[in-house]
Design brief:
Distance between the termini: 26 Å
Helix content: 25-40%
Radius of gyration: 22 Å
Strand content: 15-25%
Order of helices and strands: EEHEHEHEHHHEHEEHEHEHEHEH
Shape: elongated
């Protein structure tokens, strides 16, 4: 029997990424994009669905009578109704540890750009400030070393730990946060409230859960150092965007670098887009995961997960 596999959003991969073949008899139907209203029709006869960001709702699951397996082309599975999958005996797998280099490298790109005011200086040079200064350099924006500063990491998975290793190479003091509201996690962890208050840089590497939604909001910003930089390469929604806007506009923190936001892409008039006019805020379009090497690993693992399932040895299951 030929297994029908449907890939709903192949355009979430860049050109040049290879979709490896598996040792099973299968038909792979690839769609570049799939709108919400198209999902049911495109998956109704599928045995396997591949999705990155297309939502697989209960309605979709109940309409796909042949569906047995969903291979998520990402780590996060919030686009899948896992409860509905459980109700219909559909297994779901995700991708793990593929971004162990690309996300930490992007994190430090943001950190370095903000600590050294690279955007502000680049823009000022473009506007002729160097010529106006009349000397070999000028000091309009603050520059700080990483060495000797304190990095607070929220999230102790492989990405948080990889960021910590890079930080130590820069001579930074690294603190891992306890879960918010949790005590007695042991001597390797620093209370969440202390991370917020003591860190020169805070970097987020935890998933978006009910317990982490609005993890950092008005109260947390009010406790941060005015010289603090906040980095979020994890998920939108972990930081309250209205509170972020307030913190940056009112100079409660020094700067922020985000690769994620609540709505992707954000509305043009949203608070987070308004912040892009500031030289101490960097917003990148959810690309910290997207080195070519990382995406090829992801693609290979996505197909490996399917082959493992079809061989009755499912791997990387989330349900």
């Amino acid at each position: 029997m030929t297994v029908k596999i449907v890939f709903l959003d192949h355009e979430t991969f860049p050109e040049g990424i290879n979709i490896k073949k598996i040792n099973k008899k299968y038909e792979l139907k690839i769609y570049g994009k799939t709108l919400a209203q198209e999902v049911i029709n495109r998956t109704k006869d599928a045995d396997v669905i591949i999705t990155n960001k297309v939502k697989i709702t209960r309605e979709v699951i109940e309409s796909a009578h042949k569906l047995k397996f969903i291979s998520v082309a990402a780590t996060g599975t919030d686009v899948i109704d896992i409860e509905a999958c459980n109700d219909h005996n559909i297994l779901v797998s995700n991708i793990r540890n593929y971004a162990i280099n690309t996300v930490p490298e992007h994190t430090f790109s943001l950190i370095l750009a903000l600590r050294r005011s690279l955007l502000a200086y680049t823009e000022s040079v473009r506007k002729g400030r160097w010529q106006e200064s009349g000397q070999f350099c000028y000091f309009d924006y603050k520059i700080n070393n990483l060495s000797g500063s304190t990095l607070g990491i929220i999230g102790d998975g492989v990405l948080g730990k990889a960021v910590a290793e890079i930080a130590k190479a820069f001579g930074m003091n690294v603190l891992f946060s306890t879960y918010k509201g949790t005590k007695n996690m042991g001597p390797l962890y620093t209370p969440f409230e202390d991370i917020i208050a003591q860190s020169d840089i805070i970097s987020i590497h935890c998933p978006l859960l009910n317990s982490t939604r609005d993890l950092i909001s008005y109260s947390e910003f009010s406790q941060m150092k005015s010289s603090c930089i906040l980095i979020n390469t994890a998920r939108g929604g972990i930081v309250n965007e209205d509170a972020l806007y307030d913190a940056l506009i009112n100079k409660k923190i020094l700067g922020a670098g985000f690769d994620v936001c609540i709505s992707e892409p954000p509305e043009k008039e949203s608070q987070i887009m308004k912040l892009t006019q500031l030289s101490n805020f960097i917003l990148t379009p959810h690309i910290s995961w997207a080195s070519f090497e990382a995406i090829q690993i992801l693609s290979d693992m996505m197909m490996d997960n399917i082959e493992a399932f079809l061989s009755d040895h499912p791997q990387n299951l989330v349900n």
